[in-house]
Design goal:
Number of strands: 10
Family: Belongs to the peptidase S49 family.
CATH architecture of the largest domain: Alpha-Beta Complex
Radius of gyration: 35 Å
Protein name: Peptidase S49 domain-containing protein
Organism: Woeseia oceani
Low-confidence stretches: 67-77, 325-329
Largest sheet: 8 strands, mixed
Mean pLDDT: 83
CATH class of the largest domain: Alpha Beta
GO biological process, one term: proteolysis
Structural class: alpha/beta
GO molecular function: serine-type peptidase activity
Strand content: 5-15%
Number of domains: 2
Distance between the termini: 113 Å
Length: 334
């Protein structure tokens, strides 16, 4: 077998081509590595940008929190101010067990506020449409008990948008009530609302089966037709709760009420000006003016029991939805 030999010129040409091929491959490899490094640098920059945006967003939320809860609330904060101050407890949103305005949290905050030896007095800062009659009654009773335990310390209510139903129930226990001229106030009544679906099952071809021990155990079942006995029973319950509400208002407000005013205890609402004429409130004012007029101070220390800041941000939507659920699915006074 004989091999094929290359001429020196051909061998040189082949070597040159091989070198060129290797150089091209090395150049491509270098370009590839450069591209990889460039992408990594870009990715780092993107990560840094994302981190900066995330950190900036958190910082912005914290600043917004400080602005809303400190600046807009007239200097209210959890820390004790250096100078004279009053204690403040906020009652906001529907009053219900499980909501932010529940009897346990509000009563605990009020107790701490009354026990603060440096506080010139206590402000109940309200914006609430009311809610559970039981939760409202518990807070009302706690305020009366704290006033008896601390006769030297006064408590006044300052209401903003709404002071209605259960919120008014609570406020009537305080020494004075201040509102804005356009505040919606009053609503001294009780309501129970639900739905009936008696025809829905028939249309769907569904048979409902309910077994009870006790003749009235399934009373007010939405899938069972409402009877006259059902209507009489719920009317009796509502009247009893309404009487409790009226007694509480009379106890708290006394002869300041204009008993001759039409519809005083019939569940209606009035503006702040109208409520003032009817003796439901004592004067017009806001938090800043009341702090000065009632206690001679400019600052307040907030004793409202709130969840942690991040927890509040993450649970804001869920809490709002839950508050609305409680407000519309419980027996309410209004």
């Amino acid at each position: 077998m004989t091999g094929t030999s290359l001429s020196p010129e051909a061998a040189l040409t082949e070597t040159t081509l091989l070198r060129q091929l290797v150089d091209d491959m090395m150049q491509q490899r270098k370009e590839l590595m450069d591209n990889v490094l460039l992408e990594r640098r870009r990715d780092r920059r993107h990560k840094n940008v994302r981190f900066a945006l995330l950190f900036g967003g958190i910082a912005l939320m914290m600043l917004s929190y400080l602005y809303v809860f400190v600046v807009l609330n007239g200097g209210v904060s959890g820390a004790a101010p250096a100078g004279p101050y009053a204690a403040i407890v906020q009652l906001k949103g529907p009053i219900a067990d499980g909501s932010s305005a529940n009897a346990v949290s509000v009563s605990r905050a009020l107790t701490r506020a009354f026990k603060d030896p440096r506080a010139a007095g206590v402000v109940l800062y309200v914006n609430s449409p009311g809610g559970s009659p039981v939760q409202s009654s518990i807070i009302f009773d706690r305020i009366l008990a704290l006033k008896a335990e601390h006769p030297e310390k006064r408590i006044v209510t300052v209401a903003t948008d709404t002071l209605a139903s259960g919120a008014y129930f609570v406020a009537s226990a305080t020494d004075k009530i201040y509102v804005n001229r356009s505040t919606i106030a009053g609503s001294i009544g009780v309501v129970s609302d639900s739905f009936g679906f008696t025809d829905a099952l028939k249309r769907l071809g569904v048979e409902r089966r309910v077994f009870t021990a006790g003749e009235n155990k399934a009373r007010l079942d939405p899938f069972i037709p409402l009877t006259n006995a059902d209507k009489a029973k719920i009317a009796d319950v509502l009247a009893e709760i309404h009487a409790h509400f009226i007694d509480a208002v009379k106890t708290g407000r006394g002869d300041r009420l204009s008993f001759e005013a039409a519809g005083l205890f019939e569940g209606d609402v009035w503006t702040g000006n109208q409520a003032l004429e009817m003796g439901l409130v004592d004067a017009l004012g806001d938090l800043t003016s009341v702090l000065d007029q009632e206690f001679g101070v400019e600052h307040a220390r907030d004793y409202t029991i709130k969840p942690a800041f991040l927890e509040r941000i993450m649970k804001y939507a869920a809490t709002t939805a839950m508050d609305e659920f409680h407000a519309h699915n419980q027996l309410r006074i209004r």
